[in-house]
Each structure stands twice: as structure tokens, then as C-alpha cells.
Amino acid sequence: MNQKHVVVIGSGFAGLSAATHLAVNKSCRVTLLEKNSTPGGRARKFEHQGFVFDMGPSWYWMPDVFEDYFAKFGKKPSDYYDLLRLDPSYAVVYGKDKVLDIPANLDEFKKMLDGIEPGAGKQLDEFLAQAKYKYEVGIHDLVKRPSRSLLEFASLGLLVDMVRMDIFQSMAKHVRKFFKSEEIIRLMEFPVLFLGETAENIPALYSLMNYADIALGTWYPKKGMHEIIKGMVSLAEEKGVSIQYDAEVEEIEIENGVAKRIRLVNGEKIEADVVIAGADYHHVDKHLVNPKYSNYSEEYWDKRVMAPSSLLFYLGIDKKLDNLRHHNLFFDEPLGPHADAIYKNPRWPERPLFYASVPSITDPTVAPEGKENMFLLIPLAPDLEDSEEMREKYYNIIMDRLETITGQEVRSHVIYKRSYAHADFKADYHAFKGNAYGLANTLTQTAILKPALKNKKVRNLYYTGQLTVPGPGVPPSLISGGVVANEVMKENNL
Ligand SMILES: Cc1cc2nc3c(=O)[nH]c(=O)nc-3n(C[C@H](O)[C@H](O)[C@H](O)COP(=O)(O)OP(=O)(O)OC[C@H]3O[C@@H](n4cnc5c(N)ncnc54)[C@H](O)[C@@H]3O)c2cc1C
């Protein structure tokens, strides 16, 4: 049979998803090219003397999106990994003696809110009812639209929905309509930080993230987040995707508006009928295609609001730690100045907020017995100057706070330490400005206003991943791969 050869670039969630969706189509033969020696992109893992570190994502939210993904291929997540619901879901640290454990149970959660602000539990019911509606329309419909034309959104029902979906109101205003306590407001605004901007600049549509957080819960795949990638790779291979590692693409060779073949850094050439780029969009647009075929100018890219980069530390600790949960948000400093340092006046923040994950509290397989696996994250503006001295300075700043707040020595028990920031994101993933999470989900970067999933001048070149529709995060990247695969099938009569 005369199959079309689809070449997918990048083995992140989006690339793996696109490749698998197309591999089940009998008219396609799919090759996936990955520059690194292991799969997963930002969700890779590495091991050191019994410590197993997830390199990127650590929050498993929206379990229904993963179920939908595997169900498309007749599978379930449990065919590949075991999920646990975390309880408490996470801890929010406002200060030494002020730590909120967020209960997984909704009634307990409401009781906790009432203890902070009388009546807040009841307010939560209404807040969540709206958020549920947004989640259902948003995640089960809107995000699946390829966003290539406004007409996709033109039905009357959907226009009415847009108003009900709070597209034009900020998340910050929306939350303040329901709650007065600063503590609760920060709690409700936290999930939108995943979307790469502050609540002032994120549409209230994204209170759907609160529904995901509070109603659907925080989950954890045993042995770590990378188990999802492992499962996806095994499914992709079962469906016939041929994956090549250490296969860095140097050029997508285009002739008369048609992508003809891929040239790898090692000189190998691979003929292609369709190319789907799951590598960072800017890298593909500006470095892998002849400039006359770029979708966007450098000026356009410079004006995009990128989601933050991050400074990360992967730590092996030689003892068990006290007073920490699996996920810990250190909100013991005000958000305003740190947000200013990320979005308005890009600089290293004076007093950073940070996040600490200790998965070995839940999962003994990710650290040797009696030891702890810890991941620290400080969100930072993209494109900052990144040096060893800076990394060390911030390590000490957050270690001081971590030790004081949790009341124990940590630094002197660190037996393994690796840092990771802008320069690594660029070297490992060709990340534009060293971004960690792609493009921010602001109103002016939503749906058709995002970088398009198809090249305008090349009839068989498509894009997927966290810089195009529907946006950043693991669930959207999974969905992105499915959306682009549908477009490829439709346009190529496959
Ligand atoms: C530190 C961190 C924490 C995060 N936390 C969470 C979280 O808790 N929950 C959540 O939902 N999301 C989280 N995210 C976001 C989430 O990880 C990403 O949105 C998602 O993994 C992006 O997937 P992707 O497929 O679009 O891109 P990527 O994972 O970056 O995949 C792109 C792939 O393309 C490859 N590539 C690049 N250039 C080339 C080339 N020239 N040739 C061949 N291959 C190439 C790269 O090596 C990479 O493997 C986090 C991200 C980071 C960095």
C-alpha cells in the first residue's frame, strides 16, 4: 500500500501524541525524530545512585484528559501506570506557623475556607459551579478546535458561551467577586500560574483550573511523572511509530512550498510527505526552515508573552525530611514584586516565591531507603542572564527560608545536587529565550491569536506543542497532538 510518510519532530507529549494518532491510520507510516537520547522532552527523567528525578512536570491534573487519550487507542492509563490521589493535595506555606494543608475532600476543603473567611465555603459552591461549566466546555470542546478561523467559534450557542465562559474578565477580578481573604485569593489564583501569567492578565475562563484542582484532584503516577511518557512511548511503538533518538533535525528542506525531506545534523536525509514539528515553534520557524518560509517575523516572536523560565534544583538528601508534603508552595513572600520581576521589569527577583516537591514522601521508589528526593523550582523571567553564581545565590536564599520555615537542617544533608535553568532549556530543547512552559495563555494569545498550527506558505508543514493551540501544560500538549493529527488527516484525505 502506498502510505504517506509522516515525520514528527520532538518526542514531548505533543509529538508523541501526534505520532500515535497518525500511526493508527492505515494510510500513514510515522517516524519520530528526537534530538536527545531519551524521550519526553521537558518531561524527561534522570537517575543518580538510586534517586530518580522527574526533570519537569510534577503535577498530574485533569485525569480525564489522560483517560481520553489512552481510550482513543483502546487503552487505559492503568495499562501503563498506577495513579494515586494525593491527600493533602498540596501544602501552601504562608509562613513558619502558617501552613495550609489542602484536603482532597471537598467538604473538608470548604470547612477549611470557612475557618479563614466565614461563608467562603458556600461561596466556593457557586465559584465551582461556574468553573465546572467552563471546564466542560473548555476542556471537552474549545481546546479541541484547531483555531484556524474565527468561523470555528461563530455559532450562536458558542458566542453566548463565550460570555458565560468569562473570556473578557480577568481571573483576578473574578476571584475577588467571591472571596475577600488574601489567603483564599492567593489559593484560588495559584493554578493560573501554570498558564504563564498573573491572574490580572489571565481570562477568568481559566477558573476551570480551580475545578481541575479542587474537584478533580491532584494525582501522582507511581514511580514518577515519566511513567506517562514511558507508557506513551510503548503505545506509540505498539502502533508502529518508529522513534529515532539522537536525531537532531537541522533543516526541513522545502521546495516550491512543499516540505520534501528532513536533514539531520549528522547529514542523514529522510524523505517526508507530511512534517509535524513538535519542537519549540520559534526554533522550527526561525532555524529549521528557509527564512522565506517562516510563519512569523523575529519582531512578532519578540512581542509574544512567553511563560516563565525557571531555576530548578534536583537534590538527593541523606535523611528523611520533616514538615513537608509531596507538593509545597512557598507563598511566604508577596507575589507582586516577584511577578513584576517576571513580567513587567524582567530581572532576578529580590525575594522569590518557590515550589518544593518531595515525591519520595509518597513514593519510596524514587529515592534510596531513608533518603529524600527533592525538586526546587523558582519561576523566572525568560531571557535572563544565567550564571553559576546566580544559581548558587538563589539556592542559598531559598535554602535559608526552607530550613527556617520547616525547622531543620537540609543543606548539610544534600548529597546530590544538580541545577537547571535558562542555558539548559536552550541547550536541551532549543527553548526560545530559555522558556520552560511555552507561551502564556493571555487573552491576546488565545485560540486563533496563538501561533498557528499550520505553516501559511508550506502546504504540508504543521506545528504542535506548548507554543501553539491549545497552550502550555501536559494535558493541553497531549490534546495539541490530537488536534494537529486530525488536521493532517482531513487535509490530506487520510
Ligand atoms: C520545570 C517544569 C515544570 C512543569 N510542571 C508542569 C506540571 O506540573 N504540570 C503540567 O501539566 N505541566 C508542567 N509543565 C509544562 C509541561 O511539561 C509542558 O507544557 C509539556 O511537557 C510540553 O510538551 P511539548 O511536547 O510541547 O514540548 P517538549 O516537551 O519540549 O518537547 C519538544 C521536543 O522536541 C525536541 N527537539 C527540539 N529541537 C529539536 C530538533 N531540532 N530536532 C529534533 N528534536 C528536537 C526536544 O528535545 C523535545 O524532546 C512543566 C514544565 C517544566 C519545564
Strand order of the largest sheet: 7-6-15-16-17-14-18
N/C terminus separation: 13 Å
What form results from the Cα inertia axes?
A: globular
- Rg over C-alpha atoms, rounded to the nearest angstrom: 22 Å
In terms of DSSP E residues, the strand content is 15-25%
Report the structural category. Answer: alpha/beta
The count of β-strands is 19
Low-confidence residue ranges: none
Largest sheet: 7 strands, mixed
Number of helices: 15
Mean pLDDT across residues: 95
* Percent in helix: 25-40%
Which distinct ligands sit in these coordinates? Answer: flavin-adenine dinucleotide
Task: Write up this protein.
The longest helix has 21 residues, at 120-140. This protein has helices at 13-23, 63-71, 106-116, 120-140, 156-164, 171-178, 182-189, 208-216, 226-238, 281-288, 298-303, 335-344, 388-406, 422-429, 474-491, and strands at 4-9, 28-33, 45-48, 51-54, 83-85, 90-95, 98-102, 219-221, 242-244, 249-255, 258-264, 269-271, 274-277, 309-317, 327-330, 354-357, 372-380, 414-420, 461-463. Helix 1 (13-23) packs parallel to helix 9 (226-238), helix 1 runs parallel beside helix 15 and helix 3 crosses helix 4. The strands form five sheets. A seven-stranded mixed β-sheet has the order 7-6-15-16-17-14-18. A five-stranded parallel β-sheet has the order 9-2-1-13-19, with helices on one face. The chain is globular and about 65 Å long. A hairpin with a 2-residue loop joins strand 3 and strand 4 (51-54). With 494 residues, it is an alpha/beta fold. The model has no long low-confidence stretch (mean pLDDT 95). Flavin-adenine dinucleotide (FAD) is lined by residues 9-15, 33-36, 41-43, 56-59, 248-249, 278-279, 283, 310, 312, 377, 429-430, 436-438, 465-466, 472-474, 477.
